[in-house]
Amino acid sequence: MNHRLDVPALQNRLAAFAAARHWQPHHTPKNLAAALSVEASELLEIFQWLTPEESGRVMADPETAHRVTDEVADVLAYLLQFCEGLGIDPLAALAAKIDRNELRFPAPESHKAPNNPSTNTESHSSE
Amino acid sequence: MNHRLDVPALQNRLAAFAAARHWQPHHTPKNLAAALSVEASELLEIFQWLTPEESGRVMADPETAHRVTDEVADVLAYLLQFCEGLGIDPLAALAAKIDRNELRFPAPESHKAPNNPSTNTESHSSE
Amino acid sequence: MNHRLDVPALQNRLAAFAAARHWQPHHTPKNLAAALSVEASELLEIFQWLTPEESGRVMADPETAHRVTDEVADVLAYLLQFCEGLGIDPLAALAAKIDRNELRFPAPESHKAPNNPSTNTESHSSE
Amino acid sequence: MNHRLDVPALQNRLAAFAAARHWQPHHTPKNLAAALSVEASELLEIFQWLTPEESGRVMADPETAHRVTDEVADVLAYLLQFCEGLGIDPLAALAAKIDRNELRFPAPESHKAPNNPSTNTESHSSE
């Protein structure tokens, strides 16, 4: 059903799912942040021994494709539950972050491709 | 602008941002999965020494609230870029996962609250 | 045998184990860092839904105790292989770090117990 | 001093360091597992955008070499404190794990080099 493919609707379904199983006492922001981190690592585990090229082809194998998609769902599930618990709008948070990054990291002129990945690291990972 | 608060629109903005900075060669699925995991850990770092109760109050301090919101944005940014690269619809993936979990983990009857967190762990973290 | 309980001896055993299975091409520092991170998350997974008190009792259950010990072994295995590959002496690295931290974070006088966990966070996680 | 380069001696120094700063109440096994995971991710962050080849050269740059060594120290510090708190001998745990893995994953004959990284993944990451 289409209404499920909407962030607030998914958050409602996740909240109902947790409530029906009496999991709310375990769903502190700290625990959800830990669970989010654990699920993100389970996604990374699929890629840990792959070459860059192999990593681009994971969806060609149906079993691996299912596993990747499943871990994506787990990461998103904990991210949405974390946000719901703390009253954070994740899409608004990301839009605001992109706005800030566009000011902070102006696009280089087209002839200056970066050749230093460590520079990229800084740009990627900090505000 | 409203169109920014939509997953595909945010993915378009992220793709344009990366392209303008010539980051695509670094954005292999493997690297994006690593970056997602790193950002999830940065979110966890905020909570690592907090008690469960303290973790519920992080939004009361404006500076911590900003930091939490910012890390949420980073996690979502890498998750959406990862999904874009592999052709995964994250909202559909989550909706399908909830569907499966509703079949696999029927809600207990209301008088049987779980008292064994390790049981919950299994339910939470595996399909 | 006693000689196995020594860091260089364990590194030799790990290197021989990997070589016999032709894993060296996969054991780049990047991949070993990813694997270390994944194993650390598997250890965290055991604790993610536990209260602080429950987390102190994990060794009372033999099965959980085995699982915890096993994940500790995995974390150490990847840490030692990572260090071997890059020529880092992990025990010397830690001794040097403690030396630096003793200078950088002087112990408070005994009557000034910290009451702000976020201060501890900074002290713990950065040099 | 030589005695510092010994696991029990390092554990003693770490325990004294934490005690002098009144950090023990924060050092639950759960929190230390989270901190270990966070530090492992900080190590991974250094490598996240690097090619496999670049990742093999990180020690050539003194500043990056220092950063890598420092994160190794942080990972080991939390691993040793975690083990100390739960009465786990990390070197014995690793020796026992290698013993088990030698039985479970017999070395292939020399002419059968693995060509399927996902097979290796299983061997690497589970007992």
UniProtKB/TrEMBL annotation, chains A, B, C, D:
GO biological process: nucleoside triphosphate catabolic process
Disordered: annotated span: 105-127
Biased amino acid composition, Polar residues: 113-127
MF terms (GO), sorted A to Z: nucleoside triphosphate diphosphatase activity
One Pfam family cited in the UniProt record for this chain: MazG-like
Cross-referenced PANTHER family: DCTP PYROPHOSPHATASE 1
Protein's name according to its UniProt entry: Nucleotide pyrophosphohydrolase
Organism of provenance: Streptomyces hundungensis
